[in-house]
């Protein structure tokens, strides 16, 4: 089983950025722990701060991987293009957010991804990614 985690803008700053919201662990550290916990999954990771790169990566893997977990960061709330990419591919997508976006600013309550995703997991910190992985097993 091949699954990719795709992270959007500013998620490369996990471990440094607003630790009261996002915690103090880097995503690379967490990703290594996920690989150890799920050895039966061929787990890949991609991060970009650039919207088009996220879309291109989804198109590249969206017909051959078994699952995509995406945390599009702020693009969740602004990118019709990412939402359209999720709709265009055949690989199931789970939308993930580290924080509970509904307990934050009102603009974070809108998602252009959710309507085309297999599911949405939010508010469980980095554990949200693990919950998303479990949904593919």
TrEMBL record:
Keyword Cytoplasm: no
Enzyme class: lyase
Site residues by UniProt (Transition state stabilizer): 17
Active-site residue list: 22 (proton acceptor), 97 (proton donor)
Substrates-to-products reaction catalysed: 3-dehydroquinate = 3-dehydroshikimate + H2O
UniProt pathway: Metabolic intermediate biosynthesis; chorismate biosynthesis; chorismate from D-erythrose 4-phosphate and phosphoenolpyruvate: step 3/7
Residues that, per the record, bind substrate: 71, 77, 84, 98-99, 108
Keywords for the protein's UniProt record, in alphabetical order: Amino-acid biosynthesis, Aromatic amino acid biosynthesis, Lyase
Catalytic activity, EC: 4.2.1.10
GO biological processes: amino acid biosynthetic process; aromatic amino acid family biosynthetic process; chorismate biosynthetic process; quinate catabolic process
Record GO terms (molecular function): 3-dehydroquinate dehydratase activity
Protein origin, superkingdom: Bacteria
Protein family: Belongs to the type-II 3-dehydroquinase family.
Description of how the protein assembles with itself and partners: Homododecamer.
Functional note: Catalyzes a trans-dehydration via an enolate intermediate.
HAMAP family noted in UniProt: AroQ (MF_00169)
NCBIfam families: aroQ, PRK05395.1-2, PRK05395.1-3, PRK05395.1-4
Descriptive protein name: 3-dehydroquinate dehydratase
Organism: Flavobacterium luteum
């Amino acid at each position: 089983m091949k699954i990719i985690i795709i992270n959007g803008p500013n998620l490369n700053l996990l471990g440094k950025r607003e630790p009261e919201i996002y915690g103090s662990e880097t995503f690379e550290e967490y990703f290594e722990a996920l690989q150890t916990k799920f050895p039966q999954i061929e787990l890949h990771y991609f991060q970009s701060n650039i919207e088009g790169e996220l879309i291109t990566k989804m198109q590249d893997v969206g017909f051959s991987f078994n699952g995509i977990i995406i945390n599009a960061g702020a693009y969740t709330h602004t990118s019709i293009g990412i939402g359209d990419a999720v709709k265009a591919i055949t690989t199931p997508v789970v939308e993930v957010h580290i924080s509970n976006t509904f307990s934050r600013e009102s603009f974070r309550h809108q998602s252009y991804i959710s309507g085309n995703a297999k599911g949405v997991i939010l508010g469980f910190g980095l554990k949200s990614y693990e919950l998303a992985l479990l949904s593919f097993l």
